Amino acid sequence: MFDGLKKKLNRFRNDVEETAEEKAEAAADEAEADADAEAESAPADAEHAAVEPEASGAGDADSESDAVGDADADSEADAVGDAPADAASASAAVESESESAATPEPDSEVDADTDTDTDEPTDEPAADAAEPRESLASDAAKAALTEEDDDDSSGPGRLRRAAAFATGKVVIEEEDLEDPLWELEMALLQSDVEMQVAEEILETIREKLIGETRKQVQSTGQLVSEALHDALYEVISVGQFDFDQRIAEADKPVTLIFTGINGVGKTTTIAKLARYFEKQGYSTVLANGDTYRAGANEQIREHAEALGKKLIAHEQGGDPAAVIYDGVEYAEAHDIDIVLGDTAGRLHTSNDLMAQLEKIDRVVGPDLTLFVDEAVAGQDAVERARQFNDAAAIDGAILTKADADSNGGAAISIAYVTGKPILFLGVGQGYDHIEKFDPEQMVNRLLGEDE
To answer: Where in this protein does the record put region Disordered (predicted)?
Structure first.
């Protein structure tokens, strides 16, 4: 059932998944290549920035060592000489040597030898002068590290962003959906989905996918499946209500009227529902309001006898409203739960037949008027449902021959077009071959999630 449409929806899911994944892989590869190139240049730049200050610092250290060495040598020479210099001369000599040196190193022993008048060092400012050189080397190292961090934001950092893109961030953009959505639109129209319904499905998919993100546990296919599920469910489930609950809560007898064109399976559908209600524990009576078609009484009588049900019928050419009214009277007198009333096949353009429906509604006051058509009729069934609803206000639809329909266009479109739900699907010739329509199950069937 609906295998053709199912394949087309699956093709769309695969197309979007392939497009998004290919884009993610390409972005990751490009970012990785850029990161490798930038990472190769980053260490060289950092090393160059750090080496120059270190070299300068080393030269200063050598200068300090030479200055201290010269000062010590002179001091020893003065001590060994026959005429030692006085304290002031020694201090002057040391200061002279210190001034000529690039970076004098403070020495508490030298201070003690050269200055006996004070306990405080005399060359403390010179010690302070050495600190900026140490800070210079530290600043250069910090600059190199900062430069590496900046490179990381455009290199490895970019790679991380690309990896996040490929594994869970934004995966679908508008251009990614352009071709797949066009293909999906053509597929829906070819499957007899009404154009307005197809456009609504596409718009919902756009809203749910463009700029969307996915969780780490999701694949793009899962994301697309969720969007398809939501888009289909929104159009299929319009007007849906719990049919069984409605029947259970209604005052008895409940009267159901069936309408539609000739040859779509109204009478057989009535017989199937008689069996369906029997399984639910309800009693039923059939009433043949199709009083103009030759052989109509014989056809419905065969079903009634096969099911063991009472049939109310008048002679050919009688008043359909009177026949169904008699059926309701019989149900009330015999404590029957449900009246199933057949009507003549008609087109919305047949004023006389449409007037009959209006009279039935006025005389009988049915609880539900159900439109019956073939699922294989596709867009014709959708258009007829719209026209019947405009003329006689249907409450729901039943699609026959759904098992033979590979397209599913009518099943998707009727509820959205009429605002009234599909209630049952006919799926075979037997009395038990009828399924209560479930929008969630329908969507899962189309997306292959029920297998």
So the answer is: 1-158
Tokens (6 digits) for 69 = 């060495």
- pLDDT of 207 strictly over 80: yes
Instruction: In whole angstroms, give the CA distance from residue 167 to residue 368.
Output: 52
DSSP string, 51-77: HHHHHHHHHHHHHHHHHHHHHHHHHHH
Beta strands in 284-367 (DSSP E): 284-289, 310-312, 338-343
Give the CA distances from residue 215 to residues 164, 165, 220, 222, 329, in Å, rounded to whole numbers and listed in that order: 11, 11, 10, 10, 62
Angle between helices 351-363 and 320-333 (to 10 degrees): 30
Name the phi and psi angles at 315, rounded to 5.
-65, 155
324 with 350: CB under 8 angstroms?
no
* Nearest of 442, 2, 436, 435 to residue 241 by alpha carbon: 436
DSSP run (H or E) holding 435 = strand 434-436
> Residue 373: helix, strand or coil by DSSP?
strand
For residue 253, whether the previous peptide bond is cis, meaning omega lies within 30 degrees of 0, is yes
Annotated binding site for GTP: 260-267, 342-346, 400-403
Instruction: Check whether 281 has a pLDDT greater than 80.
Output: yes
Binding-site annotation, residues: 260-267, 342-346, 400-403
Q: Which residue has the higher pLDDT, 58 or 254?
A: 254
Structure tokens that stand for 225 in this block = 């499946």
Supply φ then ψ for residue 346, to 5 degrees.
Answer: -155, 160
**Euclidean distance between CA atoms 404 and 425, whole angstroms:** 11
Let me know whether 350 and 377 are in one domain.
yes
Count structural domains, the chain.
2
- What CATH number is associated with residue 329? 3.40.50.300
294 & 419 share domain: yes
Task: Using pLDDT thresholds of 50, 70 and 90, give the confidence band for residue 49.
Answer: low
- At 42, is the pLDDT very low, low, confident or very high (cuts 50, 70, 90)? low
Contact 376, 404 (CB under 8 A): yes
Model pLDDT, residue 5: 83
Answer yes or no: is 105 within a domain. no
Cα–Cα nearest to 427, from 447, 411, 443 = 411
Containing domain of residue 181, as a range? Answer: 3-25+168-237
Q: Which two tokens stand for residue 51?
A: 């080496």
Answer for the pair 398, 436: CB distance below 8 angstroms, yes or no: no
Q: Is 159 helix (H, G, I), strand (E, B) or coil?
A: helix
**222 and 365, same domain (yes or no):** no
pTM, rounded to two decimals: 0.68
Q: Of all helices (H) and strands (E), which one includes residue 424?
A: strand 422-426
Structural contact between residues 66 and 27, judged by C-beta atoms closer than 8 angstroms? no
Segment 250-267 shows an average pLDDT of 93
Reported confidence tier of residue 174, pLDDT bands at 50, 70, 90: confident
